[in-house]
Inverse folding.
């Protein structure tokens, strides 16, 4: 079991609430208030989980500046009131930022009994 500090536990909660508000805001036809709250909670929660310095180092690496500008630009556009355009920019930036983690996630999911079977089907496994 991984031991978490109190600030990391708070960060997990904030990140979870952020994801919930983002999901709920999209379900309610891109409600800009819920999306804005979700964005703020997600970014603050991420800073609590991995630390403020590591968060800045992650987002502002030279080879990730394009991804960071799309992600944070999307957050800003949601905050000023254009939720659909902002969410599209955020998703693109999120994909660019975390694309290195996707193979790890797929490898983890392949070890889960039912989902692993589905991912190992011939037309999906490639």
């Amino acid at each position: 079991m991984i031991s978490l500090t109190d600030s990391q536990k708070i960060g997990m909660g904030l990140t979870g609430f952020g994801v919930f508000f983002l999901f709920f805001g999209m379900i309610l036809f891109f409600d800009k208030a819920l999306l804005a709250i979700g964005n703020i909670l997600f970014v603050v929660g991420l800073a609590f989980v991995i630390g403020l310095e590591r968060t800045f180092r992650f987002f502002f690496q030279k080879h990730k500046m394009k991804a960071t500008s799309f992600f944070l630009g999307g957050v800003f556009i949601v905050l000023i009131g254009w939720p659909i355009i902002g969410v599209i920019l955020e998703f693109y930036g999120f994909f660019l930022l975390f694309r290195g983690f996707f193979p790890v996630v797929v490898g983890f999911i392949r070890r889960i009994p039912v989902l692993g079977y589905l991912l190992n089907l011939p037309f999906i496994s490639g």
Remarks:
- The longest helix spans residues 6-27.
- Helices lie at 6-27, 32-50, 52-59, 65-80, 83-98, 102-110, 113-119, 122-125.
- The mean pLDDT is 91.
